[in-house]
Amino acid sequence: MRAATIILAFATCAISTAIPQLSSPSLGRRQDNLAAVEAILEDARFQRAESFRQSDGSRRQLAECSANCKSCLVGATTKAVFEIAGCGVAAAAVDIGTGNVAAVLAATGFVACEGAVVGAFQESQANCDSLT
């Protein structure tokens, strides 16, 4: 009888610890997903910021640009880099997982934010080009 009670106690304990994992991701898994999503966002932000910096540098090399134009381009690039750093909310994609980077970036809002920043950057570049 005592052995049956001990086995029943172990079985109850094992089942009760398994139930939360079946109904929702465990806290550890959610934290792992959050860390992975944040890493994806950081990588995307870094890559986009680098593309802004390279675009600014290549424009200056290819075109004759006045001091005002160069100053404007530096300001536009700096603004775009800071804006892209704020794109995406990692917590929005915690339950998605990290298998599909494009889905993660879309779910975090990075893609929409990136589009707005790129559009504003291109408009700024066009305005800078008109300076003499």
From TrEMBL:
The keyword Signal applies. This is Fungal calcium binding protein domain-containing protein. The keyword Signal applies. Keywords: Signal. It comes from the Eukaryota. Residues 1-18 form the signal peptide. It comes from Periconia macrospinosa.
